[in-house]
Design a protein that fits this description.
The chain is mainly alpha-helical. Helix content is 63%, strand content 5%. It has a two-stranded antiparallel ribbon.
């Protein structure tokens, strides 16, 4: 798995630095599920921000909610686990590269807004 694969994964599933930090925190100790409140304290964020990013990572198949309402790193496939391992390694070695990828990837909202100004010729 190369750097390009990891950066494509970042473009697809890591929309913000908050998402990245949350993912890396959870994957550091996959055997210890976290409550939302503990994540808010650890990341110094808001509950809505943490919940939004938990939803992103759950939808990506990277984390799961436990029966008692906690969240843990549980990649659904070995490929996802390998991508996250590669991401953690790449972030330690080249944090600016990872962050630039996050910050320069247009979000869906920005893309939709830009598409609203794209004029098509009749018949297209």
């Amino acid at each position: 798995m190369g750097e390009d694969d990891i950066l494509q994964f970042v473009r697809n599933w890591v929309p913000s630095a908050w998402t990245l930090e949350l993912l890396l925190l959870l994957c550091r100790d996959p055997g210890s599920p976290w409550t939302c409140e503990a994540l808010v304290r650890e990341l110094r964020g808001t509950l809505s921000l943490v919940m939004q990013n938990l939803a992103v990572l759950t939808n990506a198949g990277l984390i799961a909610e436990t029966a008692d309402g906690r969240y843990a790193y549980r990649p659904q496939t070995p490929e996802l686990a390998a991508l996250v391992d590669g991401l953690a390694r790449l972030y330690r070695q080249k944090p600016i590269t990872v962050l630039q990828t996050i910050f320069t990837t247009p979000s869906d909202k920005i893309r939709l807004f830009a598409d609203a100004f794209f004029f098509k010729k009749p018949g297209e």
